[in-house]
């Protein structure tokens, strides 16, 4: 069966209620599709109007009344706030693979007042409450997804058209008190979470939702060798210097065992001074390879700027004390030293394979966001690579 692109839009209410992780987990694990791109939007009135007008469709298995509810919901809940003009956050997830539209739609589910279980996303997170007079008291679809591949193409092209202006790193989408000083921080959900389709990326996002912070940017990113080297550049000198004593001790033990000779303390120190930096550089290469899929020594420097083979998700969280709150939930670098309930204790394996990265200061957050280029519109690139220039 031919490859398809399918989108799922997480609504402002689902984002506000921190249901993003649970929704993503179901989509990845139950479809087995590739998460090809993701982008935050604060849709303009023009985009919302055009999207809502394309919602009612003879091809949608849901009855006309439900489609009209979705039409009105989009106009009321995705448009900028009429009082403040502030945009409303939505998250667009883009999946690629065989029969992608049907697979995503089956996981999303349809909306019914008579549902009895929690099998689909809408069963669990959506609501349709009808009163005794058959009038709708409350309606929340949780996510939006197309019913057919043709409609997926048409609507993706529409969102792509507005993806530069209405999407990226969102500004002025959260209201704060005058006394509050929000921060932004970067999170990377690391490559080991994407080795096979699993709930790990969504589960990690669920842990971060405890902070009460707001996602204002998301990007599916393949880090190049050059980006990995710049991103982890500050770690390199630490590895070269702080690992001297560690490596000296290991080298001493290995030599004494292999050759049966005793290494005096001054010679042990010399081993560290000579071999420690080499060991540190080797560890740095391992970090770069882990994040990008390639070690710098694998190919010429002219190739270092190309996207790597490893996938991660970059997220920007915003809110009061964002840096500290994210770091507290993440836990220390070494998973064995992380407290129970932290991300690295639950999902980490080693100091390198430790589930996620988070900026340790506002200054580093800005530096790292710039390197990863979180606002880059690779959503448009994926759509245009598939359908052609829009």
Shape: elongated
Mean pLDDT: 93
Q: Which secondary-structure class do the elements indicate?
A: alpha+beta
CATH architecture of one domain: 2-Layer Sandwich
Radius of gyration: 24 Å
In whole angstroms, the N-to-C terminal distance is 25 Å
Which residue ranges are poorly predicted, with pLDDT under 50 across at least 5 consecutive positions? none
CATH superfamily of one domain: Nucleoside diphosphate kinase-like domain
* Tally of alpha and pi helices: 17
Strand order within the widest beta sheet:
2-3-1-6
Number of strands: 10
Describe the biggest sheet? 4 strands, antiparallel
CATH class of one domain: Alpha Beta
Q: Write down the secondary-structure element order.
A: EHHEHHEHHEEEHHEHEHHHHEHHEHH
Q: How large a portion of the residues is in β-strands, by DSSP E? A: 15-25%
Helix content: 40-55%
Q: What is the fold named in CATH at topology level of one domain?
A: Alpha-Beta Plaits
Structure description:
- This protein is of the alpha+beta class and 390 residues long.
- Among the domains are: 1-168 and 375-390, Alpha-Beta Plaits (2-Layer Sandwich); 228-303, no CATH class.
- It is built from 17 helices and ten strands.
- It has helices spanning 12-16, 20-31, 45-53, 64-77, 100-108, 121-125, 149-161, 163-166, 200-208, 225-231, 233-242, 244-259, 265-292, 322-330, 343-347, 362-372, 378-387, and strands at 3-10, 34-41, 90-98, 127-130, 136-140, 143-144, 182-189, 214-221, 312-320, 356-358.
- The strands form three sheets. It has a four-stranded antiparallel sheet with strand order 2-3-1-6, sandwiched between helices. Strands 8-9-7-10 form a four-stranded antiparallel sheet, with helices on both faces. A two-stranded antiparallel ribbon has the order 4-5.
- A hairpin with a 5-residue loop joins strand 4 (127-130) and strand 5.
- Helix 3 runs antiparallel to helix 4 (64-77).
- The longest helix is centred in the last third of the chain and has 28 residues, at 265-292.
- It is elongated.
